[in-house]
Amino acid sequence: MRRRLTLATLVIAPSITAALALPYHAAAAVQDQGGGGAAECTIAISMSPVAPGASYVPGQATYNMSGFTDCMSTDAQLTHGTFTGTGSGIVGCIGGFRAATLTITWNTGQTSTEHLQFGEALYGGGAEGSVTGGEFAGNMVGMALERRSGGGEARCLTGLQSYGMAGEMGIFGSGGSGGSGAGH
């Protein structure tokens, strides 16, 4: 009996196989590069209140940050977290450079403290720094972010007091003696 190749055989079966293999491949991409553990995360940040307010002329400001993150990690139990933080520096609607300290509380009950330098230009930006305490201590951190603010352009005229950012965060082993897994 000769079988005919159908659309289901040619398209659907490989798609299902790829979908089942995706967690393996994604986890392989989050490999520990130096003994400190690693994670690849999506991140959403709320910044408020930005005092005195971001405007089209960048200036000194202080702010609070909060948000959440969902991750794939070398620690399979670590999948998401919430964070809070504070920062200060040059903030503006068209650019800025500032420092912040974030504390992430992971779903496992562990915490990570990150010291970051943020840079922004127009609607995007990024951050880099290191994990200085807790889970992943000694590792590097990088973020790629997009600023979100409803009606932000008009609000920049009078001082934008709060806005959101969304993007990705990577925590990468740096060869230090930082923590990974459930033992930290």
Question: Could you walk me through the main structural features you see in this protein, from its secondary elements to its overall organization?
Answer:
The chain has 184 residues and is an alpha+beta fold. 16% of the residues lie in helices and 51% in strands. It is built from two helices and eight strands. Strands 1-2-3-4-5-6-7-8 form an eight-stranded antiparallel beta barrel. Strand 2 and strand 3 form a beta hairpin. The longest helix is centred in the N-terminal third of the chain and has 23 residues. The termini are far apart. The relative contact order is 0.22. The N terminus and C terminus are likely disordered.
Q: Short summary of the structure?
A:
The chain has 184 residues and is α+β, with helices and mostly antiparallel strands. Helix content is 16%, strand content 51%.
Secondary structure layout:
Elements: H1 7-29, E1 39-51, E2 59-73, E3 80-91, E4 95-106, E5 111-121, E6 124-134, E7 140-148, H2 152-158, E8 163-172
Antiparallel strand pairs: 1-2, 1-8, 2-3, 3-4, 4-5, 5-6, 6-7, 7-8
- The level of helicity is 10-25%
Quantity of strands, as a count = 8
- Based on CA atoms alone, the radius of gyration comes out at 20 Å
Low-confidence stretches: 1-34, 175-184
Q: Largest sheet at a glance?
A: 8 strands, antiparallel, barrel
Shape: elongated
The overall pLDDT, averaged over residues, is 77
Based on helices, strands and strand pairing, what is the structural class? alpha+beta
Strand order across the largest sheet: 1-2-3-4-5-6-7-8
Instruction: State the end-to-end CA separation.
Output: 59 Å
Q: How many helical stretches?
A: 2
Succession of helices and strands: HEEEEEEEHE
Relative strand content: over 45%
